[in-house]
Amino acid sequence: MADNHTVSAFDQELNALKTKVLRMGGIAEANVAAAIQAIVRRDKALADRTISSDQRIDVFDGEISELVTRLLALRQPMAVDLRFIVGTLKIATDLERIGDYAKNIAKRTTAIGTAVPTQPMHAIPRMGEMVLGMVKDVLDSLSAEDVEKAVAVRDRDAILDELYNSVFRELLTYMMEDPRTITGCTHLLFIAKNLERIGDHATNMAEAVYYIVTGKRMHADRPKADVTAEISDPSQVA
Amino acid sequence: MTALDFTTHTIPLEGKSKISAKNVNLWYGEKQALHNINLEVGENQVTALIGPSGCGKSTFLRCLNRMNDTIPSCRIQGDISIDGDDIYAQSLDVVHLRARVGMVFQKPNPFPKSIFDNVAYGPRLHGLSESKDHLEHIVKSSLERAGLWKEVSDRLLSPGTGLSGGQQQRLCIARAIAVSPEVILMDEPCSALDPIATAKVEELIDELRENFTIAIVTHSMQQAARVSQRTAFFHLGVLVENGPTEGIFTSPIDKRTQDYVTGRFG
Ligand SMILES: Nc1ncnc2c1ncn2[C@@H]1O[C@H](COP(=O)(O)OP(=O)(O)OP(=O)(O)O)[C@@H](O)[C@H]1O
Ligand SMILES: [Mg+2]
Domains of chain A: which residue ranges? Predict the structure, then answer.
């Protein structure tokens, strides 16, 4: 993408931007992985490291905004360059949000304590694995300008939403069976919701990658299967 | 040397076509400068012609009011019509054609006459004014439409060459519109102007679109993006791509277009 411009400094700047976004993505991905680990193992130290690591993501976000602003002003990019520059700005915003969700998840490590029985806990790594796969693949799709991979990430979002819905039901069931688990399960519910949101941001990123590479919008029929809003009355769930 | 790629990508014009060029080929002596150009210029639209130096933009533009007729070595083939009238028909009066299709050049070129006479020149030549009052009215309204009236109303009798570059170019636009053409051709009209004068001319172009059809050659992609509704990209005498301006600059279809608009041509 960033090669062979008549002005070669522009190539270097575009490459620098891409590198920055991918590095930011690497940290966001690592933080999500670490947050899940911290929850599962109730590892307070790991949670703290994850929380403080979020700052690095924010720094990248700021640097990317500056670089993008400079490129727009100085190079007046067109076509694929314009799509790439604007797309990376959107992607950085999504990564920044993903970082925030990872931080939120890590913060629950202490609160959750030992309140949750092991059985409901299993839902989290199950969702986490899927979400991490999406984040990793969407970053790969950006790196390699791989449209098919981007589409596959978007398609997985529906499965993730279904998984979230089933986790939601499962946790409600636990809470109804044993009200002592309500506090812990509520934390897990929030964590599951955060993971589901990370999947949405990975999907946004996949759409951005698709647009950068092809210049077209990804087909509009984005699968959406989060129906928990309709089943929020617990009496209908059991 | 690699073979020339003759592919043209056209996103069809929506709305009425004013100028229609079909299978236009053009040679300067032995050298072919245009290869089978097919292009529709939409009525009351600005169509930008872009492409690297020497690709044939000016050559094509000059075909539209038969300016190439004055070049002895030039030979043209194909059909060009305005509102369905074949402009290369035997019976066509070229002087009348140039009244229908006005032209503004790269360097402002006012005649060495007064501001008034510059604008009055065309109407006088074509016998368009019925009286002195009428001529004065044409001059005033042309200067107004060119956004110059306020700046020159108190010195209509001073020489046009005494104006600033940007004012001179707007004077040339006033001169072009004084004969009420249907089409205005502009060949890099802002390349000799500073950014503020350029912005004024661009704003003017946008206003003129209401009453005229405009084709503009420009080397500034930002300018093409700002003023035009449709863009045609030429390369090595071939029309590579033409369609809505937004598409050309955000997601061009042909790699040659992409390379040019992103600055990848060596
Ligand atoms: N009067 C002429 N006699 C011979 N060749 C000509 C003449 N005018 C133009 N050409 C050639 O025809 C080709 C197209 O020229 P043209 O002036 O149309 O290019 P252009 O796209 O307007 O370039 P620029 O952006 O530099 O103005 C060039 O190779 C040029 O050398
Ligand atoms: Mg030219």
Answer: 2-237
**Does domain B9-110+183-261 bear CATH number 2.60.40.10?**
no
Assigned CATH for A2-237: 1.20.58.220
Contacts of B266 in chain A (CB under 8 A): 6
Contact (CB, 8 A) for B214 and B49: no
Tell me: the pLDDT tens digits for A85-108?
999 999 999 999 999 999 999 999
Question: What is the C-alpha to C-alpha distance for residues B75 and B69, in angstroms, rounded to an integer?
Answer: 8
* Helices within chain B (DSSP H only): 57-63, 94-100, 115-125, 132-145, 149-152, 165-177, 195-208, 221-227, 245-250, 255-261
The protein residue with its alpha carbon nearest to ligand 1, atom 28, reads B54
Ligand 1 atom with the smallest distance to the CA of B31 is 5
**Distance from C-alpha of B26 to C-alpha of B37, rounded to nearest angstrom:** 9
Ligand 1 mean position, distance from CA A64 (Å): 43
pTM: 0.84
Residue of minimum CA distance from atom 6 in ligand 1: B28
